[in-house]
Amino acid sequence: MIDSYETEKSSLIRRDIVVGSRRFSNYWWASVIFFGASGFLLTGISSYLGQNLLPFIQFKDILFFPQGLVMSFYGVLGLIFSSYLWLTIFWSVGEGFNEFNKKEGKIRIFRWGFPGKNRRIDLCYPIEDVESIKVELKEGLNPRRTIYLRLKGKRDIPLTRIGQPMTLEEIEKQAANLAKFLQVSLEGL
User: Fold this and answer.
1) Percent over 90 (pLDDT), the chain
2) What are phi and psi of 37, to 5 degrees?
3) What count of Cα atoms within 13 Å lies in the side-chain half-sphere of residue 75?
4) What is the model's pLDDT at position 163?
């Protein structure tokens, strides 16, 4: 979701905050996967050691080969995936802002990426290069509702977050407000 607020009292600057990976659903899935994977791994280890590491599971019911081995494998994979999710949350991957500054005549799109030399993704363009605001609506099994900034002679730059799609009303309102603010045309609706 993009949360909009004006950084100044004047109508010359608009800044939209992009949440990124610090969403409730990521916290939820990272926790669920961690606890599930820990249970699988402890069950596999219990079957190998011949001792109950989890009080509610009897190791005698599970042979180490093949059930305990497979459960240990799934537990390790789950812990790796859970660690990945927790690290993306910790690093705030995808978080940033879209700033439209009429005062300086610039558009700045900033996002945090994964650690490394390209951790900071910071794009700046002159406002004069904006051709239009484009809205892409794809319905179906994996719906996609995205607002793009279309620049003259360049590619479309996505402005909305990836994840759960916004409602049609929300995306129309945000795109129309942005097009009005930038005084450009709106495509795709």
Assistant:
1) 65
2) -65, -40
3) 16
4) 65
CA–CA dist 27, 187 (Å, integer): 35
Helix, strand or coil, per DSSP, at residue 22: coil
Averaged confidence pLDDT in the chain: 88
Q: Dihedral (C-alpha) 102, 104, 107, 108: value to the nearest 10 degrees?
A: -130
> Which sequence spans correspond to the domains of the chain?
2-20+94-187, 25-91
The answer to whether 77 and 7 have CB atoms below 8 angstroms apart is: no
Please tell me the distance from the alpha carbon of residue 72 to that of residue 54, in angstroms, as a whole number. 14
For the domain bounded by 2-20+94-187, which CATH number is listed? Answer: 2.30.29
How is residue 23 written in tokens?
């969403």
What is the value of pTM for the model shown?
Answer: 0.81
Measured over the CA atoms of residue 17, residue 120, residue 105 and residue 189, the dihedral's sign is negative
Burial 137-150 (b: 16+ CB within 10 A, else e): eeeeeeeebbbbbb
Cα separation of the two ends of the chain: 20
